[in-house]
């Protein structure tokens, strides 16, 4: 769905459609998206839940609910919502990627890796899933796998600044300061704000 340019007009149109058909799941979903884009979480939740109640295939609504719960820091609800999404559509890569991210934030690394790998299997070009997978390997202390994963990610998205930053950190942990500096400089060139502490750690390893 295209992002509405005029929220008020768009919402009014969805409400007009609902006045004619109160159980129109599409209008309810669109209404939820509009509220979500404005940060009106309670209204968005109500609209998405009603859309779900009126349709058996609203897996996108569950994913959007998961996003709202993530904004609120309710990670168990994030997981529950995305599990419902993939129960409806088992080949929905975004649902698995979101589960992987949520599990990683909770320190449940093995579950995170399993879901991120599934997301990548379904959509090999999902850059954020590759990035989160590399971070999970770092959480486990497996620097070599983190580097290999980060390299694959940058083959897909060579201008991904965050990816260069994270790969630089993995190389730093490996003790390969030349590659760490090369990737951190690339991140900076792409406009990514590298943490000053990391730049300070790399500074003694730079050659004049």
Tell me what the structure shows.
By secondary structure, the protein is mostly helical. 75% of the residues lie in helices and 0% in strands.
Provide the fold topology.
Layout: H1 7-20, H2 25-37, H3 41-53, H4 59-71, H5 75-88, H6 93-105, H7 109-122, H8 127-139, H9 143-156, H10 161-174, H11 177-189, H12 196-202
Sheet-strand content, in percent, reads: under 5%
Number of strands: 0
Coarse structural class: mainly alpha
H/E topology pattern:
HHHHHHHHHHHH
The percent of residues in helical segments reads over 70%
Largest sheet features: none
Work out the radius of gyration.
20 Å
**Which regions have little confidence, pLDDT < 50, spanning 5+ residues?**
none
Task: Determine the number of helices (DSSP H or I, runs of at least 4 residues).
Answer: 12
**First-last Cα distance:** 52 Å
Give the overall silhouette: elongated
Give the averaged pLDDT, no decimals: 92
In short:
The chain is 75% helix and 0% strand.
Notable features of this structure?
208 residues, mainly alpha, 75% helix, 0% strand
């Amino acid at each position: 769905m295209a992002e509405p340019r005029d929220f008020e007009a768009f919402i009014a149109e969805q409400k007009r459609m609902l006045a004619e058909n109160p159980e129109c799941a599409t209008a309810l979903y669109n209404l939820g998206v509009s509220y979500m884009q404005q940060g009106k979480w309670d209204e968005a939740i109500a609209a998405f839940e009603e859309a779900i109640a009126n349709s058996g295939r609203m897996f996108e609504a569950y994913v959007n609910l998961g996003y709202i719960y993530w904004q609120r820091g309710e990670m168990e609800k994030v997981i529950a919502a995305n599990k419902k999404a993939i129960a409806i559509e088992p080949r929905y890569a975004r649902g698995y990627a979101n589960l992987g991210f949520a599990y990683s934030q909770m320190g449940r690394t093995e579950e995170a890796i399993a879901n991120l790998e599934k997301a990548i299997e379904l959509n090999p070009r999902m850059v954020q899933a590759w990035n989160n997978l590399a971070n999970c390997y770092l959480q486990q202390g497996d620097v070599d796998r983190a580097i290999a994963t980060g390299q694959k990610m940058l083959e897909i998205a060579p201008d991904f600044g965050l990816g260069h930053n994270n790969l630089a950190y993995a190389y730093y942990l490996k003790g390969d300061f030349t590659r760490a500096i090369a990737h951190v400089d690339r991140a900076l060139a792409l406009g990514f704000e590298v943490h000053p502490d990391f730049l300070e750690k790399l500074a003694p390893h730079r050659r004049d």
